[in-house]
Amino acid sequence: MAIFLVTTLVALFVKGLTGFGSALIIVPVFALFMPLNKVVHAIALPLALSNLPMAFSGWKHLPKRAFISSSVSFALGIALGSYWIDDVPDELLRKVLGSTLVIFSIFQLFGGRSITKMPRIHWAEVFRLSSASFVSG
Q1: At CA 81, angle to CA 101 and CA 3, rounded to 5?
Q2: What confidence tier does 129 reach under pLDDT thresholds 50, 70, 90?
Q3: Segment 59-74, tens digit of pLDDT
Q4: What percent of the chain has pLDDT over 70?
């Protein structure tokens, strides 16, 4: 129990400093001790609630096109991921999560652009956001 509490406190501290990253810390550590689908169900509501203040204060700074493409991508990805997560073996979920984190990290390392700096909607970006939402869903 203590490892879950310490991990959550560290993750939320990092989120407080950077504005993101709590799930990137919590999910892998929790997944060491429980099935991944249970981890997602356990952290979904607390992380969503911790994101609300940032969402309400930051949405007005996001370009309208980016907001629309993000919303569609996130809704699609979360809906499909939520349905899928209970029907897929835990080992496959772990492989998909790990692959997604590695691919996203490489993308960002080699100059991936933020959606707020994109001049128009790119289908590759919609796919990337949907995939991330799907895995986190």
Answers
A1: 55
A2: low
A3: 677 777 777 777 787 7
A4: 80
Retrieve residue 123's tokens: 């289908």
Token output for 119: 């001049």
Contact present, 87 and 119 (Cβ < 8 Å): no
pLDDT of residue 68: 78
What is d(CA 57, CA 60) in angstroms, rounded to the nearest whole number? Answer: 7
Provide the residue count of the chain. 137
Pair 69, 125: CB distance under 8 Å: yes
**DSSP code string of 19-73:** S--HHHHHHHHHHTTS-HHHHHHHHHHHHHHHHHHHHHHHGGGS-HHHHHHHHHH
> 129 and 67 in contact (C-beta within 8 Å)?
no
Helix (H) or strand (E) holding 15: helix 2-18
Tokens 């310490």: give the residue. Answer: 6
* 135 vs 4, residue with greater confidence: 4
